[in-house]
Amino acid sequence: MPLDKLSVNRDGFSSKFGIIAAAAGSAIGLGNIWRFPYIAGQGGGAAFIIVYAIFIIFIGMSCMLVEFVIGRRSQRDVIGAFQTLSPGKPWFLSGWLATVTITLIFAFYSVVFGWTLDYLIKSVLNSFSGMSPNEITSVFGNTTSQIFRPLIYTFIGIALTVLVVMGGVQKGIEKCAKILMPILFLFLIILVIRSVTLPGSSKGLLFLFKPDFSKLTGNTILTALGQAFFTLSLGVGTMVTYGSYIKKKEKLASTVVYTCILNSCVSILAGIAIFPAVFSFGISPEQGPGLAFVTLPNIFQQMFGGYFFGIIFFLLMTTAALTSTISMLEPLVAVTTEGLKVPRKKATIIIGIIIALISIPCSLSFGIMSGVKFMGMNFFEFLNYITANFGMTFVSLIFTVFVGWFLGSKTVKAELSNEGELKVGYYPVFMFLVRFVVPVAIVVVFLSGIGVI
Ligand code: PHE
Hints:
By secondary structure, the chain is an all-alpha fold.
């Protein structure tokens, strides 16, 4: 079928602002506010951030553009895209792998979304009031190790996501992102101002901006690469699917640049909102996943105006999480509606139920299933580790090799230049990165991370 026929009647984003809000909404998530600060804290702060920034600029941006090209060219979901662009070849298997990876990410991410909702309610009810630091710390363990409470909140998070995605691309996803993203920035700025005005906050800023390279190991570098893919929502079909909803007249490259800049600003601002506060209250920055849920409620408890800032912080996490889970559900819905011809509403609900089922062992791995270990990690940690470090990176490797070596230079250039209408001076650099730099870097970091090099 001719490509432009396929795009008729396809739902899609209505405006440039809508595209950027949705793409940045996907990228900006718990990855920036919950995952980035604790990973950077464990990885030594600034040294880690430098490596991560290099990965974002040279690898992440190219990979996002690669996904937009695949999506917009094919006007299909992530599996159908390869069947359309390269019929009869096995490339579509990478779409399957992306689909499995996003399913697993969605499941464990929903659990953190659930904790976030639980903590939001706790903050509103002022539940931490009068508690000692030890008591606040034990709240996290007590909440996450229960059977039903975290599951109920997890299911609420999934249900909210289903409700938005059911509304469609323009009337559900785009509309929601346009409302939530500006609010998210407002919340973040309020928190940053509070954090940097605390006494002793400069230590936290030094930790974020003064590098200590002795902390960098193969594994830290692999984690930085994994985080770059995770935070930009790459290697799981999200950006292929969103790319397929971008109108043919829009500029793909500038969309990538805006999205990556907004996303990086949020990570850095989240770091500035969190670390000065952490240092100001004399807490260790290497907390791990509990950083947002243990350290911060402690700090809010001791801080002037803490009740108010606590609520704002968990509202920020909730908005960030929702626009991201939406972008995890949509690629799965697209695969089901376009590939299997299931109606949108039905597809959305069925997938929601499947994700809810997989989220159960993820949530229980902090309680009754905590003894079940995979490579020394509980089920949740194991999924978090393999999806970001292996699933996303491997799929991105295949996507880039496909666009760099197999899709054809003419096709790629036509897509980037909107069929010759735009000047694409960056094209040779982009192709060089996609053909050589990105695949080699992924393979090297991969091998050194697992200890082969
Ligand atoms: N980028 C999101 C975050 O940082 C996570 C995400 C991963 C979203 C994959 C969609 C797809 O939280």
